[in-house]
Amino acid sequence: MLEKINRQYGIIRKLKLLNLYDSLDILPHGELTILDILWKASETHPGQYITVSDIAKQLDVTLPAISRTLRKLEMKGCIQRLTDRQDRRITYVVITEDGHTALSDSIEIITAFMNRVFAHFKPEEIEEYFYLSKKLLDSITEEEKLLKRIP
């Protein structure tokens, strides 16, 4: 069993060491995730703004972590921060046209890359990969829940 665990960790470690964001010349995952949240919010609720706190809650991360990523996105021109006129403690975040473009371009690049990657697989292998990945994730999630119940 230890051999299987080592094999799995070896694969995970190698995947983590890949720096596809740099190789593909796209925004890092955290920045893309925030842009995606902002884009979806602008599509589903036009004219309404999302707060920094809302983003932090959705991603289950701290406000300082979100602020660092927002600062990077702001420097790249992908977002704009707006302060509430009635309550200056509230900051809203809006995706800019450059942010839309960066997100769209990144999605296009990732899609093309993954299409090339999966071209090395038979269709049934792709389905098996997704099936087994989901099964592994579900099993790990279930076991983690059980661990949390143990006093």
From TrEMBL:
Ranges where the HTH marR-type domain occurs = 1-138
State the Pfam families in the record: MarR
The answer, when asked if Signal is one of the entry's keywords, is no
Q: Which domain of life is it from?
A: Bacteria
According to UniProt, the name of this protein is MarR family transcriptional regulator
Which keywords label this protein? Answer: DNA-binding, Transcription, Transcription regulation
One GO MF term on file is:
DNA binding
